[in-house]
Amino acid sequence: MAKTVGAGGKSSARTKKMNETKMIMRQPILLVAVIVVIATLLLFVAYPLIKILLFGLTTEEGTLSLQTLKEILTSHRYLSTFGRTLLLGLIVAVISTFIGYIFAYTITRTNAPCKGFLKMIATLPILSPPFILSLSIIFLFGKQGLITKSLLGITSNNVYGMPSLIVVQVMSFFPIAYLTLSGILESIDASVEDAACNMGASRWHTFWTVTFPLSLPGIISGCLLVFIQSLEDFSNPATIGGNFTTLSVEVYQVITGSYDMRKGSVLAILLLVPAMAAFLLNKYWVNKKSFVTVTGKPTQARKPINEPHIKYPLFIFCILIAAVVILFYGTVIFGSFVTTWGYNYTPTLMQYQKALAYGWSSMKNSMILALISAVLGGLLGMIIAYLTAKRNYYGKGFIEITSVLMFAVPGTVLGIAYVLAVNTKPIILTGTAAILVIVFTFRNMPVAIESGTTTLLQIDNSIEEASTILGANSGRSFRKITLPMLRNAFFSGLVYSFVKAITAVSAVIFLVSPRWNLVTSKIYTLFDQAKYSQAAAFVTMMVGILLVFIGIFNTLINILLAPRSKKRKPTK
Predict the structure, then answer these.
(1) Residue 42: what pLDDT?
(2) 401-425: per-residue pLDDT in tens?
């Protein structure tokens, strides 16, 4: 009987999908949207990835060959680099998740003071350029460091290497774990924990037997997401790693130093494997594991923890981390206003004058291209979210997987893939602004898709059905009903896409050109030339620009989402 029901269920699902597909065939706007989305994803997501796989595993004549792969897998140098990359990712993932969990627990479970301040600190590294923490480590602990030389009198300290890299990556990526875990902790039913306390369990026992097991999926998800970010990171290992070379930096050095595109492609594929494995594990296994009990009964408000022996130790830990973050950011800002770091601390605006003269055009390019790609990525993300959350048809699975695939692809891999894909016929976009916009759009679009999907799943289908019954087609229903409800999700994706586009390094390091240079590549060049104060001025300006644009976006959100009151004519 069970098999019969199962078979009947599958048959019903196939019938429903077939009917939905036929319905889309009768709706021109929907049909065009599906075709355009599939064609776009094939061209700008699937094709570049297939291109790098084929290029890395074939010879110049086009025949299949594993010789380059064999050379890499038998090379002690590359295997050591691969092992160091994985080790770094694991260490950073564990420490970042630990800090993120304490932040999330303190903010969601206790009535500790300064919660708004802690939330700001926990999200600040996400909104800042990738170089800022590496720069602060050099300013504080380098040979001319404010702490090592000025305070401790140490002039031979080597700041470059794995310890500094761990500190920088942990400070950069623990907000990712915090955002993941805060949502998990907030979704746990308060009555479950209260029931354990009412039965005599202590706070400590309740945490280990109730709260921690229920938040375990979020902990694993946070670890995997941070692990992916650590693998993908290029800017921090390139600037502060020293002799501790990671695979992303190795790929860059092989291509730019040895001019060996094939070996670089194989190394990129090697980097892609663990990143993709962690992404798929998180998306298709961890996200389906939910131990949180959600009932239809109303739940009581959660009573925050007020015990001093719990609240204050957690608060002190968060404040110490916040102090480190403030120290790092404050040091870079201070460093941008001095004449020569380590020698002459006289206040000056000379570094900003040099930075603007050196790279104002690249700054302008970054802002223009980031804004264009953010709008395109936001709109495309909302369309894809609608097609995957509200429709069930043949081809939906391909759109779902391919549209979020770029989130798991390391930036250096993506850059090489696009170089191979758009450098020959039929598509030649090398050195143009179009290729940079395409990379930014598809690289950052998954966040807009996830945000839009979450919003759409909360909208009852009966609202659109009522519109259809009244004679509106799918396009009009989407434009008049669904799209207004997606405004918040759209602007959230817009802000994220803009920030990530203007601060991107690894994905565009191979794609910039003299005509379309970007501010991040200019800053990376300044690091190579040891012009740290000038780099600090650039980074500080970028932070200011990002804050201004985020303020503008938030203002637009508030205006568009504000309730509109219509004056009614008085009835007689």
Answers:
(1) 92
(2) 888 888 888 888 888 989 888 887 7
Q: Buried b vs exposed e over 102-113: b needs ≥16 C-beta within 10 Å?
A: bbbbbbbbbebe
Q: What is the DSSP string of 496-533?
A: HHHHHHHT--TTTTTT--STT--HHHHHHHHHHTT-HH
Rounded Cα–Cα distance for residues 298 and 316 (Å): 34
Contacts of 285 (CB under 8 A, 6+ apart): none
Question: Could you give the CA distance from residue 469 to residue 481 in angstroms, rounded to a whole number?
Answer: 14
More confident residue, 395 or 352: 352
For residues 100 and 35, membership in a common domain is answered with no
- Contact status, residue 202 vs residue 380, Cβ threshold 8 Å: no
- Same structural domain, 366 and 461: yes
The half-sphere exposure of 397 on its side-chain side, counting CA atoms within 13 A, is 3
Instruction: Evaluate whether 482 touches 453 at the Cβ level (below 8 Å).
Output: no
With H, G, I as helix, E, B as strand and everything else as coil, classify residue 58.
Answer: strand
| Residues 547, 445 share a domain | yes
**Domain CATH code at residue 41:** 1.10.3720.10
**CA–CA gap between residue 61 and residue 50 (Å, rounded):** 17
Confidence of residue 289 (pLDDT cuts 50, 70, 90): low
Task: State the greatest distance between any 2 C-alpha atoms of the chain, in Å, as a whole number.
Answer: 90
Taking the model in full, what pTM does it have? 0.82
Which two tokens mark 314? 């957690």
List pLDDT tens digits, range 451-476: 777 777 666 666 666 666 666 666 66
Distance CA 443, CA 418 (A): 12
- Pair 472, 407: CB distance under 8 Å: no
Q: What range defines the domain where residue 452 resides?
A: 18-45+345-566
Instruction: Say how far apart CA 130 and CA 97 lie, in whole Å.
Output: 19
Please check whether residue 171 is in contact with residue 125, taking contact to mean a CB–CB distance below 8 angstroms: yes
Residue with tokens 């102090």: 323
Is 262 part of any domain? no
Tokens 């090379």, residue located: 75
Count of domains for the chain: 2
